[in-house]
Amino acid sequence: MPKIIGGSLPEHREHVRARVFDALRGQLYERGFDAVTLASVAAEAELGRTAIYNHFRDKEELLVAFVEHEAARYVALLGAAVDAVDDPVEKLATFAKLQLRTLAEYHLPPGGALASALAPSAYRRIAAHADPIVEKLRAILARGVAEGRFADHDPDIVIPMVTAALGARQVVDVPAEQLDTAISVAVGFILRAVGVKTRDDQV
């Protein structure tokens, strides 16, 4: 019988999943999804080759579970950061900074690559985790419009434009010493796009 990590089977399961996710994270960033195998993840997570199948049927199911785990953690972090400030301009700036910082730190395959690698049902499960992020952005924009801080544009047009800008990897693919400046410029661009006059505009 395999050794139980932690005080119970649920704790054991969470410990194993955390080790597997850590291993997968590294392999995704270093090798890409196509090169990942359950056997390679199991070896790095120090699991038996067959033990990983007790948790995941295949690498597609593993990727979906990993993205769901990462997304839930990120949504909680984003919500806490945005809710910690009251001014809608600061909320949007905080939202944009965190999105860009996360984009710089994480290198999951882009949406198009995931769509081609996964079955449609699996990709829809992953894509659904963007919904709370979009709704958070929608709430920030609505608050800013209501308070007269943002231009009253159709959010169904503005939101995809903002999310596209915040998903542009070229913005953050810069030397580490230039990242803060790149993010600052990008945040200023987002704020101006919704009608906020920044200090640069007032010079």
Automatic annotation (TrEMBL):
Keywords: DNA-binding, Transcription, Transcription regulation. The keyword Cytoplasm does not apply. Pfam families: TetR_C_24, TetR_N. One of its GO terms (molecular function) is transcription cis-regulatory region binding. InterPro entries: DNA-bd_HTH_TetR-type_CS, Homeodomain-like_sf, HTH-type_TetR-like_transc_reg, HTH_TetR, KstR2_TetR_C, Tet_transcr_reg_TetR-rel_C_sf. This is DNA-binding transcriptional regulator, AcrR family.
